[in-house]
Amino acid sequence: MVTPWGYPTILKTALAAMLLAGSTALLSWHLLPPILLLCMVLLLFTLYFFRDPERTPADEAEAIVAPADGKILLVRKVDNSFTGPSSTLVSIFMSPFNVHVNRIPVDGTVTLLAYHQGTFMMAFDHRSLESNEKMDIGIENSSVKILCSQVSGFFARRIVCALQEGDRVERGKRFGMIRFGSRVDLVVPAHATVSVKPGERIKAGECVIARYPAPAAAVPA
User: Fold this and answer.
1) 182 belongs to the catalytic site
2) Residue range of the domain that includes 22
3) Which candidate, 48, 53, 137, 220, has a CA 20 to 30 Å from the CA of 97?
């Protein structure tokens, strides 16, 4: 399965491959076999990059699932204007070989969308936490508020986010992607318990990043 967000790039890659192969056939037949091989590799990699496998989120009402595939780069305490003091930042690095479709971490409503212009430092450089181009997405329900940030990197210059403020969203559903390797940051509030550590590899929409306590049941009068 290929994400529709990749169709324009796949089409451009296919057209470029055909033009390259056609011009090579006209100008230099002996170079055609390696050029055809190169074109095939480029097209197959593009299809592989935009793959979009089905995912089944954990069946836990209080679970916060990973918004991206990749490797846990950083887990640290932060103060955040949306999630509050003593929140926890979980940073996920996506290599060009990871699935790049991003997924909703928790059921709720989108109450914040903020695009920030910035630089294009390497995604694994911790300085990029504050300086890189990014899209902040705040989601909340009656029990928790989380902030998910799509962060561009050195090669990834295209952030796709299909959400709008006020949207009702469901955990594990697709909401966007970042093209060609980058990072997604997730900030959870102080009352959420993070269950991952740096170095772990995770899958979007399936792996549980953190859990938050369910609201206390009302006591009958």
Assistant:
1) yes
2) 4-49
3) 137
